[in-house]
Amino acid sequence: MARRQLHINVANVINPGSHPGAWRSPEGRPFGHIDVAHYHEVAKIAERGKLNAVFLADQVSIGPNIAEGPGFGVIDPVPTVATMAAVTEHIGFIATVSTTFSHPYNVARTFASLDHITRGRIGINFVTTMAEAGAQNFGLDKLPDHDERYRRAGEFVDVANALWDSWEDDAFVADRKTGLFADPARIHKINHVGEFFKIAGPLQAPRGPQGRPLQVQAGGSEQGRAFAARHADAIFVALQVLSEGRAFYADIKGRARQLGRDPESIVILPGVTLIIGGTEAEAIARKNELDEVTGQNNARALRQFANRFGINPDDLDLDSPVPLDRLEQQQINPQHQSRGFADAALSLARDRSLTLRQILEKGTGHRRIVGSPEQIADSLEEWFNEGAADGFNIFSDVYPAGLAAFVDHVVPVLQRRGLFRTEYEEKTLRGHYGLPRPESRFKKLLAQSG
């Protein structure tokens, strides 16, 4: 039996870097997020490291802190991944789509097209959108409520899967002798009528090399976990503490088992933000330099932490433990805040030995690791071996320099330990994750009917 190995994506490349000072760093590229050459370079570096995929987040409104940096979601990830795929051969690409403000037919057609164009290297990250401003860009005064957004998302994914499956794999005949190009009996209407959508089908585009694109989800709420366990091939999650990582991992795998899914068919990928130096001291110095270049040190992180719980930042003391009772009493509004990020911050706050300043140093969203290549590899290996992760979505402090440091110095350590591939062995993104190509559901139904 082959040894289990890590799955690693690089994320947040639509930003200058994960550190807020990235765009102001001498290594930073203030306009890299709108420069196609920048994306090409990032994709090539990630492929050099044999990573699974480049992951592009998105949102459908301008970021609230645009004065301080570009934020994510500046340009559309779909054409961006297409151009990155054109200059690479193996690495996969995951683009984000809002199920609240998109239509499943258009999305299914676009991603079926991308699956063909990339020869099977495409994945889709389904999000429900939590930015109120997004609603106002689509003719609504406010977001639909949290439960409604997840009901729509569930129906959206069911419809998209049905459309991707509406062509059987052998529907194309191309028989020059008989003149039969495609067999209509193998192309099926889906005739979907639901709460949110009424779609006849079939899809215009035939099934791609993967059958269906790799499907990713990142919700941390109860509805998000239920959705992920039912639909996702990979789950992107914010976790800070190893014990809570193990609990989340076991919860999702258990939910999948109860739904009749193979738990091994779902890959759990916590996010980690990395600041890498040749030694721990060099990594700390690099972080300090990035902190210094922002000119505000902990101010932005403090504001984000306080806003996450609806607390006035002036009520918090950086050099004391946080008022845990106040945090736990706050009702996180899923209309505006991420339940997963709030839970990750709470997990740190429960350690009463930590001051708020120390918590902010660790990162209150995705876990931050500052250290040498060996220290980075040690931390990733611990979570992997302790049943808290199947791999990671890594965030580099500055792109592309931070990613190059990971590829050139951390990846070789993981490879020497037998934890990561030394060459690509599969051609598709599903293959990189060790996941099989699903059959068309219509073929299964026809076989069952006899």
TrEMBL record:
<dbReference type="GO" id="GO:0016705">
    <property type="term" value="F:oxidoreductase activity, acting on paired donors, with incorporation or reduction of molecular oxygen"/>
</dbReference>
<dbReference type="InterPro" id="IPR011251">
    <property type="entry name" value="Luciferase-like_dom"/>
</dbReference>
<keyword id="KW-0288">FMN</keyword>
<protein>
    <submittedName>
        <fullName>LLM class flavin-dependent oxidoreductase</fullName>
    </submittedName>
</protein>
<keyword id="KW-0503">Monooxygenase</keyword>
<dbReference type="InterPro" id="IPR016215">
    <property type="entry name" value="NTA_MOA"/>
</dbReference>
<dbReference type="Pfam" id="PF00296">
    <property type="entry name" value="Bac_luciferase"/>
</dbReference>
<dbReference type="InterPro" id="IPR036661">
    <property type="entry name" value="Luciferase-like_sf"/>
</dbReference>
<comment type="similarity">
    <text>Belongs to the NtaA/SnaA/DszA monooxygenase family.</text>
</comment>
<feature type="binding site">
    <location>
        <position position="58"/>
    </location>
    <ligand>
        <name>FMN</name>
    </ligand>
</feature>
<keyword id="KW-0560">Oxidoreductase</keyword>
<feature type="binding site">
    <location>
        <position position="150"/>
    </location>
    <ligand>
        <name>FMN</name>
    </ligand>
</feature>
<dbReference type="GO" id="GO:0004497">
    <property type="term" value="F:monooxygenase activity"/>
</dbReference>
<feature type="domain" description="Luciferase-like">
    <location>
        <begin position="28"/>
        <end position="388"/>
    </location>
</feature>
<keyword id="KW-0285">Flavoprotein</keyword>
<feature type="binding site">
    <location>
        <position position="96"/>
    </location>
    <ligand>
        <name>FMN</name>
    </ligand>
</feature>
<feature type="binding site">
    <location>
        <position position="221"/>
    </location>
    <ligand>
        <name>FMN</name>
    </ligand>
</feature>
<dbReference type="InterPro" id="IPR051260">
    <property type="entry name" value="Diverse_substr_monoxygenases"/>
</dbReference>
<feature type="binding site">
    <location>
        <position position="146"/>
    </location>
    <ligand>
        <name>FMN</name>
    </ligand>
</feature>
